[in-house]
Amino acid sequence: MEQRLPELQCSRKFSKIFLIGDSQTQDAFSEQSGWGSIISNHFQRRCDVLNRGLYGYNTRWVKLVLNQLIDEANVEKIAAVVIFLGSNDANSKAVFPQYHVPLAEYKSLLGDMVDYITDLGVSREKIILVSAPPFDEEQWIKTLIANGDAPLSGLDNVTLKLYAEACNEVAAEKEVNSVDLFSEMISKEDWKKYVCDDGLHLAKEGGKLLAEMLIQKLDKICEKHTTWFPHCDSIDNENPTPSFGL
After folding, report:
1. Catalytic residue status for 231
2. pLDDT-based confidence at 1, cuts 50/70/90?
3. Could you confirm whether 180 is annotated as catalytic?
4. In what order do the strands lie in the sheet with 15-21?
5. Backbone angles phi, psi at 215, to 5 degrees
6. What are the pLDDT digits (tens) for 12-55?
7. What's the rounded Cα separation, in Å, for the pair 42 and 73?
8. Would you call 201 a catalytic residue per the annotation?
9. Which secondary structure element, helix H or strand E, spans residue 51, and what is its range?
10. Which residue among 108, 183, 198, 243 is the active-site one?
11. Which of 11, 66, 72, 216 has its CA 20 to 30 A from that of 127?
12. What average pLDDT is seen over the chain?
């Protein structure tokens, strides 16, 4: 009689790294920035990386749907949560009122999101807040014109810096991890190469930089999440079952 392997609840096998944010996150697995793909590759067979980026969303809207992204049902599987918001919030109210969230409200909403996640039972050391990156205004205006929009950027790096600082402040106040992408990029003489041709989103170089910064944090957070299943070279071809601890 053929030996049957015991039933496994495979959905419980792999822990999850959640990426929550706007289009910078929705595009995390694209060829353009690819930072989510880099992280996923780094944690293959250890953690699944789930993209919950929502194009055009600000903190106000993400907070409203956060309980549909993370709830009690998946808390035990959470290895880490990355929240990357601010690029849309920082838009000028006069130019893009639908995206703009005042700085004080942005900070409050970000804190509320951290509180919601920790209230579910996720420990603070598993949460990472990422600040919005700088943008290339000249390229962004070219993109607006090409799309038939008025050549009003609605953004500036002085304002984005304020939102980045607010993000870092929330991380410090809530005692969670932070990645200051804005400061890291703007400190480089050639920082514009980290922004793609549309002037707003991360280019491949920017995605690689963000992935490297996040992996430094995630490696510590996920150090107990070891590789699932034995290496192929260690499996006994004649009698494989014991190799799997079954």
Report:
1. no
2. very low
3. no
4. 47-53, 15-21, 78-84, 127-130, 177-179
5. -65, -35
6. 578 999 999 999 999 999 999 999 999 999 999 899 999 999 99
7. 26
8. yes
9. strand 47-53
10. 198
11. 11
12. 91
